Amino acid sequence: MSAKAERLHLRVDAEQKALLEAASRAAGASVSTFVLKAATEAAADVLADRRVFVLDEAAWQVFDAALERPAQDVAGLRELLTTPTVLDAPPASTQR
Questions:
Q1: Element (H, E) at 8
Q2: Is residue 5 part of a domain?
Q3: Would you say residue 53 lies in a domain?
């Protein structure tokens, strides 16, 4: 790991600072270490689904074959996606 030469400056309000200080104490880390770890983990989570993935030749052949197959109807899927659910608004009542 290379030496840290870059800085980030953050402005926080008193409540945020107190929360970060309390959490870092509970984790047994300095505020800087705690914030850097939490921010780095959050950044990795955000980018996780945008990363490149690598497959060996056999896995690539299976993946490529799956991509080349024509789309198929899945039994019950069309009905599932078109049937109203309990979360859909009920139809407007014409009776009062």
A1: none
A2: no
A3: yes
Nearest-angstrom CA–CA distance, 81 and 78: 5
pLDDT range class, residue 23, cuts 50, 70, 90:
very high
Contact 19, 34 (CB under 8 A): no
What tokens does 80 get?
Answer: 């599932």
Range of the domain at 63: 12-70
Question: What's the length of the chain?
Answer: 96
**Cβ(63)–Cβ(53) below 8 Å:** no
| 39-77 per-position pLDDT tens digit | 999 999 889 878 777 899 999 999 999 999 999 889 999
Domain assignment of residue 92, yes or no: no
Question: For the chain, what is the domain count?
Answer: 1
